[in-house]
Write a structure and sequence with these properties.
The structure holds two protein chains of two kinds. Chain A is of the alpha/beta class. Chain A is built from nine helices and five strands; from the N terminus they run H-E-E-H-E-H-E-E-H-H-H-H-H-H. Classes of the chains: A alpha/beta, B alpha/beta.
Amino acid sequence: MNNLRQIAAELLNTGKVNAIVGYVPVDGTSRTKPFIATKPEEVEKFVINQNILNNLSVYLTKDEVKKNFKKIGIIAKGCDIKSIIALIQENQIQRDNIVIIGIKCSGVYADFEETRIADKCVNCEVMEPHLFDYLVEMENGSVLAGEDQKIKIIRQIETMNAEERWDFFENEFSRCIKCYACRQVCPMCYCERCIVDKAIPRWIESSAHKRGNFAWNLVRAFHLSGRCVGCGECERVCPMDIPLSLLNRKMIMVTQEEFNYKSGMDLNTPTLIGSYDLKDNEEFIE
Amino acid sequence: MNKDNFEPKIVAFVCNWCTYTGADLAGTSRMKYKPNVRMIKLPCTGRIDPLFILKAFERGADGVLVSGCHPGDCHYNAGNFHARRRWIMFRKLLDFLGIDDSRIHFSWVSASEGKKFVDVVNGFTDKVKARGPFTRFKKLNEEFVINE
């Protein structure tokens, strides 16, 4: 912990960064919340424990942060670093403008509850981050064990027929209230004008009607295919408990099977949808 | 409307340079094909946003056909390559949600393949006719959440 505070304070003192995004505890609870430190004294508040659930890379895409701070330091777990790399792949942030303080992560608790591990942490391959400028250890970290509930549900859906699948998703999406929290928290949803905001022509209704709900969730999942890194934030913030990560995880599995591609692993690979291969599979095309 | 006289509504998104011309050739050669298809002409399959396909289903299509130039023959060089990649992902997503292969079909039809266009349309119309009307989206349209 002292290591992190030393590194952070030095970065701010020497002016290598203008701000550092990290996690601070919420008083009286086990939760943590995001915090942007701009003065060296403020780094005392930072913590790295097994409740640092949020993906802070979303701040790197926000105008208010980009305008006010030219160089930003970010405290990031492996999964967050995947988001950062995906953003660099799409030229949304420059590698030289950020300093990544990577965390050797042992897994985080789901929903800050300290009863079970988050689904994204089971089978994590970046517990040792794959890109960083500094590396710190997680305090009191013991590798959490658990089962990936999402994969089980996805496999179950794959055994259903078309009618049953539609029923399942219609039921889930009927709760959607179009708050767009999923879009706001997603680091990959950085479009200045989202397709759902376009009124002429109106592609997707913004009211909380079943037809628009289905369209919204389907289109968001499609716009994320090949780009989503599976951080699970969308599902965490959904106020209606819609299992959004089922769709996104399924698309991650599809891109892995069809193209052997994983978003957010290598800075230098071109994006999946932005490129093509002469040998792409076309067996389904008559 | 019972199953026997159900006539499916098929929307076809086709590229201007190949498939549309191929369909034109079928017409000038006086080849007969099933009249259920409604053609939407685009300059290239690369212009097809999967959102169009979704919108077609939302507005009552029972099946959607997407067709363009053969790989390597695109008028704009690489439009159909980009489209092909999108289709690979989109059809898996649709399949996961319950809209399977019997409702959406992809093909490469060139400007000289009038006969192939006829075969594609006839084959797909039969498939959709056998599958039945796509009522799920229509039911969504009619439901109002406010009054629950």
